[in-house]
Backbone:
């Protein structure tokens, strides 16, 4: 049986969130640079890609990516604080930063959604 | 799951507890037992009852029964725990207990694991204290309020039960990783001003398979029955690793 996912704790969820959002970033960056490269090659191809990016499903994926990147930033800052700053106590793993990171990601997601809806 | 093999008669209330126990070594199977439900019993009490009344060949370890020695650690419903300090009423799931040996250690028989690799890692991490004074010298005057002593004291109570080692995913993924207990020990020695081999201990703790392999999942801290924080100790070693890097020590 081993340890089960249901028994995982807050810091483990933070670990998962940080790694999964990091993977999303790793997949996104090459595509991002591809689009930037197309902008240099010609307006028609870039326009085609921008039209594709304006599709609702792609916009939704873009929103999810923005949220994941914000989460990656927040959880990464916690990790840096845990590993490189003095701990406030023997068990001061800054667990409350995990909730803050999630809140930050959600806020960024709401702002992004608002900007999409405003057009 | 096997059918319940043998049972101890239920209490007057008729309620019983189903206990699934890993039988065998690396290869084996879960065998179920039914024992009476009692208002106050620990998981270790239950294992002992099964061994004494149903299955004399059941292998398990215990010694003090009061949370001092750490030898009764097992995996209870998926979590590594001291069974002597785990009240059945707090850990059962719908009247069922599933007991396995500790994770990340070779299984010998039933609930017993081979701890020798665990203790070898303690030594690999430079966990042996080497003093400079002799028995003829006066005791070292260590300021208990000094920063280094307070850091050591926060981690010093580890009794090597192996719970953190079993809880750690990195140990499972990377078998040569020293693990939270060994690195926690190294951290106490690095901060012990009486330890003559602090440089060597630090070098070992920073080597491949040492503190830098930790992913800061915090499983060791979440499961430590003593409430210690090997995660914090490893973070301290990582800070020292960074200092060593900037000083060109590695």
Residues:
């Amino acid at each position: 049986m081993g340890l089960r996912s249901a028994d995982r704790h807050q810091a483990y969820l933070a670990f998962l969130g940080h790694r999964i959002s990091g993977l999303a970033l790793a997949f996104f960056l090459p595509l991002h640079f591809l689009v930037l490269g197309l902008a240099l090659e010609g307006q028609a191809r870039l326009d085609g890609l921008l039209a594709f990016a304006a599709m609702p499903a792609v916009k939704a994926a873009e929103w999810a990516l923005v949220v994941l990147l914000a989460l990656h930033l927040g959880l990464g800052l916690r990790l840096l604080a845990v590993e490189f700053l003095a701990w406030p106590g023997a068990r001061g793993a800054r667990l409350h930063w995990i909730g803050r990171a999630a809140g930050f990601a959600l806020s960024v997601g709401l702002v992004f959604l608002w900007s999409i809806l405003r057009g | 799951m096997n059918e319940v093999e043998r049972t101890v008669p239920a209490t007057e209330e008729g309620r019983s507890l189903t206990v699934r126990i890993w039988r065998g070594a690396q290869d084996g199977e879960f065998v179920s037992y039914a024992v009476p439900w009692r208002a106050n019993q620990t998981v270790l009490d239950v294992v002992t009852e099964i061994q004494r009344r149903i299955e004399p060949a059941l292998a398990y370890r215990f010694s003090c029964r009061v949370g001092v020695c750490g030898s009764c650690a097992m995996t209870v419903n998926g979590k590594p725990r001291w069974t002597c300090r785990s009240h059945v009423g707090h850990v059962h799931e719908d009247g069922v207990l599933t007991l396995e040996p500790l994770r990340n250690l070779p299984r010998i028989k039933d609930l017993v694991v081979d701890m020798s690799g665990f203790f070898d890692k303690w030594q690999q991490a430079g966990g042996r204290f080497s003093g400079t004074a002799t028995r003829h010298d006066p005791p070292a005057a260590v300021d208990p309020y000094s920063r280094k002593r307070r850091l050591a004291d926060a981690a010093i109570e580890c009794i090597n039960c192996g719970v953190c080692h079993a809880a750690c995913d990195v140990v499972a993924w990377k078998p040569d990783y020293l693990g939270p207990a060994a690195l926690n020990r190294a951290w106490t020695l690095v901060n012990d001003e009486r330890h003559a081999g602090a440089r060597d201990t630090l070098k070992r703790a920073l080597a491949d398979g040492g503190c830098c392999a930790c992913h800061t999942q915090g499983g060791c801290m979440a499961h430590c029955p003593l409430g210690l924080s090997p995660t914090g100790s490893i973070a301290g070693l990582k800070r020292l690793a960074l200092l060593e890097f900037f000083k060109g020590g590695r």
Q: What stands out?
A: Chain A has a mean pLDDT of 85. Chain A touches chain B at residues 1-4, 6-7, 9-12, 15, 79, 82-84, 87, 90-93 (CB under 8 Å). The two ends of chain A are 51 Å apart (CA to CA). DSSP finds four helices and no strands in chain A.
